[in-house]
Amino acid sequence: MKIGNIDLGPRPVMLAPMEDVTDASFRLICKEMGADMVYTEFVSADALIRNIAATTRKLHIAPAERPTAIQIYGREVEPMVEAARMAAAAGPDLIDINFGCPVKKVAGKGAGAGLLRTPDKMLEITRAVVDAVDVPVTVKTRLGWDHDSRIIVELAERLQDCGIAALTVHGRTRSQMYTGSADWEMIARVKDNPRLTIPVIGNGDITSGAAAREAFERYGVDGVMVGRASIGAPWIFRDIRRELHPEEHLPELDATEKLALVRRQIAESVERIDEYRGILHIRRHLAVCPLFKGIPDFRQTRIEMLQAPTLDALDAVLHRIATDYLHIDI
After folding, report:
1. In whole numbers, what is the pLDDT of the chain averaged over residues?
2. Which of 54, 75, 191, 314 is least enclosed, having the fewest CB within 10 Å?
3. Tens digits of residue pLDDT in 207-233
4. CA gap 259, 205 in Å, rounded
């Protein structure tokens, strides 16, 4: 699959953009685990053009994580154009426009998935951003605002006419948020449209290698995107790659290797921010990490892990988990 001149190879798997998740360290680990392309946390156009430091830091891309997309969001044409130019100056491989974020603070203000209620404005923003930058521009969106306005098949054509290089479709409406099941039949209808010539990337409920294989073989998408299933488990990309590319003979990671990745995430989070905020940041990964699921009599230890106030305290808990529960040495 190619996006512009970026060749991602057959059946590529991407790391979805997620706020407070896809920081530089996490992107690099996912890349090492087999992600074919990664996306930054989504970047507010308004904050970027005001040079908010926390936002401008999101534009940094390490050479080893490429190809990387910077995703921007906003609700007005001029700020989105200016932000796109600033993002392009940071040297991403492509710029992605977020028309899919369902959270109230974004969609409720008319940005992200909120623009599914005003598709003409969405198209105006898209066309202006495509015209403003020299790098490929892609779009990530949802099926529609709600069940009664699933406009994605027609909308995909109109977005293509604006000049985008690829389209990612999350198989839920904004009203669904992240509940229920993703509608891959609807994603397949987008892909099956003979007028659509750009790559279609499917997103939603890709939680295993088997799910990724089904997305390609049953629904015919050009690529798949993994979001929440990667939180606390960056090795999912390796698991998916083992399923999609058995000829590579990749060994499955064991518990020792997975815990080493968790500890690396912790260390790099603390190094990137500071000890207090770095530990707070990493807790969302620890809370859902499948390595710690299903362990008998783990509740109290889990609370200690998620409440550890310092790096030394957290490391001590992880050592105890490794020895007493996982029966491994670290």
Report:
1. 97
2. 54
3. 999 999 999 999 999 999 999 999 999
4. 24
Rounded Cα–Cα distance for residues 44 and 208 (Å): 31
Closest alpha carbon to 218 in 192, 195, 238: 192
In one-letter notation, the amino acid at residue 133 is V
Max CA pair span of the chain: 58
Task: Report the alpha-carbon distance of residue 191 to residue 203 in Å, rounded.
Answer: 13
Q: How confident is the model at residue 118 (pLDDT cuts 50, 70, 90)?
A: very high
pLDDT more than 90, % of the chain: 99
- Check whether 130 has a pLDDT greater than 90: yes
Nearest C-alpha neighbor of 152 from the set 179, 113, 126, 178: 113
pTM: 0.96
101 as an active site residue: the answer is yes
C-alpha to C-alpha distance for 73 and 71, rounded to whole angstroms: 7
Q: Residues 251-277: pLDDT tens digits?
A: 999 999 999 999 999 999 999 999 999
Place of tokens 């500071």: 274
